[in-house]
């Protein structure tokens, strides 16, 4: 512990996807971990208007832990925010290329020459557009093709309700031939639209073709918190590690929590996350995952999403996770009051 005064609040934010942060929040383990210190732990998503929700993207909040998509995380670092990468997960989250019913388009090779939907949102960092570009790029690369082998069709997306709504509407109108989607809500949206799957990126044997916003998914923290209170960072990470341990033995509970986190029904969750997802929530900073994130950084930079390069290896700090792993081994998974075994 440094001599710096303890912060009154630690913030966390996560994307509506499988995360150890979401598990720990559901079980109230983060709140319980820091209660004795007089530190409140609050979710940026659920906070009252006094919280800057834009910090989910900018990370301009020193007391914030973020477990979410890598596009905003890399963008924030590229813009000069003093964040550090302290963990990476790889969780398969269904990624598909959808086509109109009856089109007969099947396989990555069949995307050659097609009009691929690329959404445009008027937001600070258009991660939706980045996901579509990288998703199509991965699918085409699996067949030895590049984006230049197809036609990119901009789809204005402002004003539409729901994820991928603009792109699926364009597909129904016949303005585009293919749409990239991912996740539980995408499964449900595709079913409502009657769209058919042309490419299942999850079935591709080489995970390099599935590198995108959520694969790999970073855990980041502000350098200021790491400098002033490294022990708080270690303890926070240790809770996430224990939550991942707990999740490994609780597939049913993880599915329930995923439904709440994603806003999708049971069918959407089951369609997006394959059996075994509950075993994959542990973060690491392995050379393999760092290399995949570096490939994502290069792809985003090539498409103009990053104002400056990000040296992924220099960004990563493995020490908090190393210390947290040792701490988690010494501390059992806590039981929340609602646990029947407590």
Structure description:
By secondary structure, the protein is an alpha/beta fold. The chain contains 14 helices and ten strands. It has helices spanning 20-27, 29-35, 55-58, 70-78, 127-141, 165-173, 184-193, 223-228, 230-247, 251-262, 266-272, 287-302, 312-315, 319-330, and strands spanning 9-14, 40-43, 64-67, 83-89, 95-99, 115-120, 151-156, 178-182, 196-200, 217-222. The strands form three sheets. It has a five-stranded mixed β-sheet, sandwiched between helices. A three-stranded antiparallel β-sheet has the order 8-5-9, with helices on both faces. Helix 1 crosses helix 9 (230-247), helix 7 packs across helix 11 (266-272) and helix 10 crosses helix 11. It is globular, with a radius of gyration of 20 Å. The two termini are 31 Å apart. The model is unreliable at 335-342 (pLDDT under 50).
Topology:
Layout: E1 9-14, H1 20-27, H2 29-35, E2 40-43, H3 55-58, E3 64-67, H4 70-78, E4 83-89, E5 95-99, E6 115-120, H5 127-141, E7 151-156, H6 165-173, E8 178-182, H7 184-193, E9 196-200, E10 217-222, H8 223-228, H9 230-247, H10 251-262, H11 266-272, H12 287-302, H13 312-315, H14 319-330
Parallel strand pairs: 1-2, 1-3, 6-7
Antiparallel strand pairs: 3-10, 4-10, 5-8, 5-9
The description of the largest β-sheet is: 5 strands, mixed
Given the helix and strand composition, which structural class is it? alpha/beta
The strands making up the biggest β-sheet line up spatially as 2-1-3-10-4
The ordered string of helix (H) and strand (E) elements is: EHHEHEHEEEHEHEHEEHHHHHHH
Distance between the termini: 31 Å
